[in-house]
Amino acid sequence: MVGVARGRGHGWLASEMINFNQLRIFYEAAKAQNFSRAAQDLCITQPAVTANIRALEEALDLKLFKRRGRHVVLTEAGSILLQHAHRVFEVERQIERIVGEMHELKRGLLKIGTTKTYARYLMPSLITLFHGAYPDVKIILDEGSSLEMSRALVDLRNELAVVVKVEETRKVKFIPFRMEKVVLFTSVDHPFASLEGIRFQQLEGQPIIIRESGSGTRSLIAQCFASRKMVPNVLVETGNLDFIKDMVQRGEAVSFLVEDAVARDHREGRVRIVPILDQELYLEVCIAILDEKDLSPAARAFLGILLQQGRKGPPSPGRPPQYQSHLSEGKG
User: Fold this and answer.
1) 57 φ/ψ angles, rounded to the nearest 5 degrees
2) Residue 188: enclosing H or E segment and its boundaries?
3) Phi and psi for 185 in degrees, rounded to 5?
4) How far apart are CA 259 and CA 203, in angstroms?
5) CA–CA dist 328, 332 (Å, integer)
6) Residues in contact with 90: Cβ distance below 8 Å, sequence separation at least 6, in sequence order
7) Residues of the chain by 3-state class (helix, strand, coil), percent to 5
8) Is 106 helix (H, G, I), strand (E, B) or coil?
9) For residues 119 and 149, is the Cβ–Cβ distance under 8 A?
10) Which terminal residue of the chain, N or C, has fewer Cβ atoms less than 10 Å from its own Cβ?
11) Residues 210, 213, 219: CA angle, nearest 5 degrees
C-alpha cells in the first residue's frame, strides 16, 4: 500500500495508506475513461470498479472523476493522480521484468567462497562452464581458508563455497564433491628428492612450511604429525602459494600442497614431489551451503553444475564408500 498524508481540518489523515488495488482500478478506469471497459480489462464487474473508485475518493477526500454521459472524465486531481500512478505501474512492470530475468538467469549476482588453492586450480574451469550457460550472471569469488569460507556462509557474505570441511560449522551443510590428493614436495637438491619415497617419520626435524590456520591441508598434516606423537618443525606459516613454492624451490624447507598446485612445477623440474610410503593423504573437497531451498536461482544453477562435475569425476584412492551416493542424492 502507498502512504497518504492527511492534514488537520480535512477528511484525510497522515497515518492512512492508499489501497494499491484501488489505485490499479483507478489507473485502468482513467486510461479507458470508461468503467465498463476497465472492468473487462481487469476481469471484474463494473459495480466492483465503481465501488473501488468511490472508496479511493473517500480515502483521499478528493473527487477523481466527473460523469459525461456514458463516459467519465478526470478531474484536475484525477489527472495529477494519473500521472503519478503511471510512474508507479511503470516501475511495477520494470520490477516484474527484472524478477523474470533473475529467474531465467539473464541477470543476477552470485557470491562464491573458496580457498586460495582452489581459486587458482579448480574454480576457473567451473566458472567457465557456468558462464558458458549463463553469461549475464556476475560472479564474485571470495578467497580465504576453508574455515573462513565456511563461516562466511553463516555471516551471509557468500551463498555457496567450495572448501574442505575442517570442523563442524553451525548451520552449514557439506556435500561431498571430489577427493584431492595432497603431496609432499621438496627442492630438486633436497636429500629426499633422489629417493623413491620416504616414511612419514623421516620428516622429524625437517623445516616445514605449513598452510594458514583454518586450512584443510594444514589440518590434515597436523593430524598425521599428532597421530605419530611428532611435532612439526615449522619454519613459516602462510596461505601464499607462490611464497610456499618459492621457499621450497630455494631449499629452505619442505611443504605439502594439493597435487594440482605443484604438478606443473614438478613436471618442469622446479620442485620434486616425494611419495610418502606409509601415509595416503587425501582431502575431501565439499560444496558448502546453508539451506538449498534458500539459494538464489544463480546459486542453484551453480550447485547443479558442481554436482554434475562431481559425478563425472573418477573415484580416487581413499574416497569413502558413500561418496558417490552423496553426489547422486545431493546430500551432505
Assistant:
1) -60, -40
2) none
3) -135, 150
4) 19
5) 11
6) none
7) 45, 20, 30
8) coil
9) no
10) N
11) 70
Q: Is the CB of residue 68 less than 8 Å from the CB of residue 78?
A: no
* Domain annotation for the chain: domains and CATH numbers: 2-103 (1.10.10.10), 109-177+287-329 (3.40.190.10), 178-282 (3.40.190.290)
What does the radius of gyration of the chain's CA atoms come to, in whole angstroms? 32
Note the residue count of the chain.
332
DSSP code, position 330: T
CA angle 41-42-45, nearest 5°? 105
Whole-prediction pTM: 0.69
Q: Mean pLDDT for the chain? A: 87
Query: Does residue 326 have a pLDDT over 50?
Result: no
Name the 3-class secondary structure at 286: strand
Write the single-letter amino acid at 148. E
Could you tell me if 273 and 262 are in contact, meaning their C-beta atoms sit under 8 angstroms apart?
yes
pLDDT-derived band at 106, boundaries 50, 70, 90: confident
Q: Is 150 exposed, middle or buried (0-12, 13-18, 19+ CB in 10 A)?
A: buried
Rounded distance between C-alpha atoms, residue 80 and residue 286, angstroms: 58
Element (H, E) at 86: helix 76-103
